[in-house]
Amino acid sequence: MSAESAAEHVHVHEPPSSFIRRWIFSTDHKVVGIQYWILALVAAFVGMWLSVVFRLHLANEGTIAQLNNQLSALAPDSAQAQALTEQIKALQAKWFVLTPEKYLSYLTMHGTILVFMVLTTAPMGGFGNYFLPIQIGALDMAFPRLNMLSIWLTILSFITLMAAFFVPGGPPNSGWTGYPPLSAIPAAQGKGYEGPGGYGQDLWVLSIAIFCFASLVGAINFIVTTLDLRTKGMTMLRMPLTCWAWFVTAILSLLSFAVLLVAGLLLLLDRNAGTSFFIPGDLFFNKPLVDHRGGSPILFQHLFWFFGHPEVYIAIVPGMGLVSHLLSTFARKPVFGYAAMVFAIFGIGIVGFFVWGHHMFQSGMSPYVAVAFSVMTMVVGVPSAIKTFNWLGTLWGGNIRFTSPMLYALGFVSLFVTGGIGGIFLGQNAVDIYFHDTYFVVGHFHLIMGVAAIFAMFAGTAFWFPKMFGRMMNEPLGKIHFWITFAGVNVIFITMHLMGLEGHPRRYSGFNYDFLSSNYMVTCHKIVTHTAILTATTQLLLLVNIVYSLFAGPKATDNPWEATSLEWAIPSPPPFENFKGGHVPEVHHGPYEFSVPGAAKDYIMQQEPPEARPATAPSAH
Amino acid sequence: MTPLLFVGMIGALVALTLYFFATKAPILPPLISEHGQLIDDQIYLTLIITGAIFAIAQLGLAFLVYKYRHREGAKATYLLGSHKLEYTWSAATLVLFVGLNLMGQKVWAEMHLNEHPKPAIEVEVTGLQFKWYIRYPGKDGVFGRRDVNMINDAEGNFLGLDKTDPKGADDIVMGSLTVPVGVPVVMKIGSRDVIHNFGVRELRVKQDAVPGLAVYIPFKATQTGSYEVACMELCGYGHYQMRSQLNVVTMAEYTKFLADNAP
Fold first, then answer.
1. How far is the C-alpha of A545 from the C-alpha of A423, rounded, in Å?
2. How many helices (H) and strands (E) are present in chain B, helices listed first?
3. Which regions of A344-475 does DSSP assign to beta strands (E)?
4. What is the mean pLDDT of chain A?
């Protein structure tokens, strides 16, 4: 079916009259997109505040460890020693002091919530759902009912995950990676985790399995929509890079979530049905574990990271697409090397499937395979570098407007570079012998996968808010939020790199080592904690900005940014059927026709008539 | 205002980061193993290369942002890209990244691919929640049989040594690892419950201890002293306190250590 006939034969529906069908169980891709966006916002705050609690715990533990060191040098009954003892007792009574189990639980939930419910939902399910159909000129996603299924399964998955807080034993403490046997055998997690105490881990696995299913459904929808529902004139190479990014992300999701779903189901069986996919024989937990043998813990890691590495790209590729889009829009210039950008996105997607083993260099898997994974990992650096060069090229010779979405996008580029640098260390199998499972890794992945992707979400929110809600966001508030957050995350995560350089292990809830209770390490911990509190608090500005702008922001025009893609050719907010009366415009121009020589204004929208572009101008797509 | 602020912010980012890495990096923990020199060399080489990339890319970004900021009457250049540039920087980064990686393969081969040095002192390292036990084969140089059903923590038989096996009669089990300086050692690393990781910063050794799997890691210590062994893979609530010790001693001390602890 050609795109043309699809556009012509679409039958335009009236919006459902019932409130529930219109706004809650809605098949409208715009409503689904906003639902994903809200889910991500809620989840981001839950996950972030969890991290603030365990950061407080860590800084406090560091102080206690140092005081204990001082104490051991004093005579036990001296007045000074008694004062120190009092001080330690006071610190140990703080509300944020966690047991080792709770510390790991919060850590596990922080990671799981952020990776799945935020990084995987907002960039794709949120902005992608809302804007893919509009940008390619479609009236909705290809399968609106599947779309509704996908968001509600994701919400169910989030509720299931949150339920882990309320069952006996609380959330699991096996980390967001959930490696068996720790995650597979209840006794391994400690006394309180057997029987009903293990429900937290079961809910965790179940939640991820549901999430996988929802993502698979969503991925199919994105792929079909992109391939089949483009309007007349919207060739693949006229799609904005955002659409390319969502398309590649959907392919990655389809191929990787299927594998994680399997891993999750097998783990659930190992826990509850007596199977042994991941549990080897001859284990001992208080007594010999007689009913399990023959499984492989490393098999789980392969399945997990076969998903887990592409997942990094699922989080970041939509951000890359959006940032390319924004740099071009606000530098008033075409994207530098559009085709190279498309190739680079595909390159990252394809090569990204052959590098999962770099998470497992020290796992005991074949060391020969490690060499191959390591070389492939360096190869995946090439498309990443291409993208960075092209972003810089896009700025070159521009006429840059410093709006808040542009600032967030520039922040993304900077964070992507900084985070990427750490990857050059960790991707080398030899260097990873030293850095594996240290704070260096924590700093690295937070910068590149966490914060960079979140900056793209900030950018998307600031950029598309006027279209989604019909009102502009507050610029000064957005800029203040940008500066503090940008400075804050750099301080937090670069400090973590430095701690990793000293070999600080991740996932430690205490300071039982001489090298951990050194002044240097504890100072680093305190810097990270204090900056984290400041940065987390700053996020309230974003919330204030959203709520304030929703009600009191200046009304947005149709195209406040003077951008070119189709969403700016329709009212803000768009009508139910996107394009009035279902009349989708024909596309005549490439997506980034900014500052075309001889044109009347410095941008040509995609649906403008062919004459808008002077025949004398150098040809683009 | 905004572009200047951006330049200032990026400038501070680059200056502070380079300063801290330049002053902190040369003090990776002291190195006490032979192969570790190769790892350190590779780390420093990577630091220098990536430090340069970091500075150039960030400052380049700041420069472009400032230079091409919006001014009254300014116009952007209509620039679509350049195939030549794309090929050049793709090839350059490919050669740089893969080349850098290949330089690190020598030490990887030494630890994992090549045949391990012989003769070497063989020790068995076993992780369990939340302790390490190290077994020496004793005079006969052979480890005795282990059986999970014979594990008895109360009696101190953490590894399930089979007392009826004559080969195991002279096996020594300790809570810390003692090795002589300057002699090749091969560790057989395993676990009796969940995954642990035997990591010693100064030794530049880090290896998962996986239940059901034996991994062999060679090293040669170059300096006597005591060093902390840390568990580097999340193994449960006690992960952070799974601490042990590596004692590197002279050969004479090592012989005495074995004799003193022989059953």
1. 34
2. 5, 10
3. none
4. 95
A55: exposed, middle or buried (Cβ count in 10 Å: 0-12, 13-18, 19+)? buried
Select the residue of A182, A382, A595 nearest B93 (Cβ to Cβ): A382
pLDDT band at residue A102, thresholds of 50, 70 and 90?
very high
Tokens 């996950």 belong to residue: A47
Distance, CA of A127 to CA of A456 (rounded, Å): 11
Residue A399 to residue B207, Cβ atoms within 8 A:
no
The boundaries of the domain holding residue A189 are 3-566
Residue B248's SS3 state is strand
The answer to whether the CB of B192 falls within 8 A of the CB of B211 is yes
Q: Count CB-CB contacts under 10 A for residue A94.
A: 11
pLDDT tens profile B212-232 = 999 999 999 999 999 999 999
In this prediction, residue A231 has a pLDDT band, given cuts at 50, 70 and 90, of: very high
Helix A199-228, helix A241-272: angle, nearest 10: 150
Encode pLDDT of A319-337 as tens digits: 999 999 999 999 999 999 9
The CATH number of the domain holding residue A413 is 1.20.210.10
Report the top-level CATH class of B115-261.
Answer: mainly beta
Q: How far is CA B17 from the centre of its chain?
A: 23
Q: How far apart are CA A109 and CA A88, in angstroms?
A: 29
Q: Where are the domains of chain B?
A: 2-69+82-112, 115-261
A589 lies in some domain? no
Give percent above pLDDT 70 in chain A.
Answer: 98
Nearest residue, CB atoms, A410 vs list B6, B21, B39: B6
- Residue where the block lists tokens 């699922």: A314
**What pLDDT was estimated at residue A3?**
47
Distance of alpha carbon A350 from alpha carbon A380, whole angstroms: 9
pLDDT in tens, A448-476: 999 999 999 999 999 999 999 999 999 99
Nearest residue to A391 (alpha-carbon basis) of A413, A408, A407:
A413
Can you tell me the mean pLDDT for B42-61?
96
Residues 148-187 of B with CB under 8 A from A: 148-149, 151, 160
Q: What is the spatial distance between Cα A224 and Cα A140, in angstroms, rounded to a whole number?
A: 12
Confirm whether A54 is domain-assigned: yes
In a domain, A594, yes or no: no
Residues 104-133 (B) with a CB less than 8 A from some CB of A: 104-108, 111-113, 128-129
CB nearest to A414's CB, from B10, B113, B129:
B10
Work out the minimum CA distance from A427 to partner chain B, whole angstroms: 8
| Contact (CB, 8 A) for A522 and A63 | yes
The Cα A278–Cα A264 span in angstroms is 11
SS3 A5: helix
Query: What is the domain count for chain A?
Result: 1
Q: How far apart are CA B112 and CA A479, in angstroms?
A: 51
- How are strands ordered across the β-sheet holding B184-191? B172-174, B131-136, B121-128, B184-191, B215-220
| pLDDT-derived band at A2, boundaries 50, 70, 90 | very low
Cβ of B100 under 8 Å from any chain A Cβ? yes
Q: In whole angstroms, give the CA distance from residue B81 to residue A389.
A: 11
The answer, yes or no, to whether residue A618 has pLDDT greater than 90, is no
Q: What is the mean pLDDT of residues A48-68?
A: 96
Output the pLDDT for position A9.
Answer: 55
Angle A370-A317-A571 from CA coordinates, rounded to 5°: 170
Residues 6 or more apart from A546 whose CB is under 8 A from it?
A41, A461, A465, A473
Closest CA to A36 of A135, A138, A148: A148
Is any Cβ of chain B less than 8 angstroms from the Cβ of A437? yes
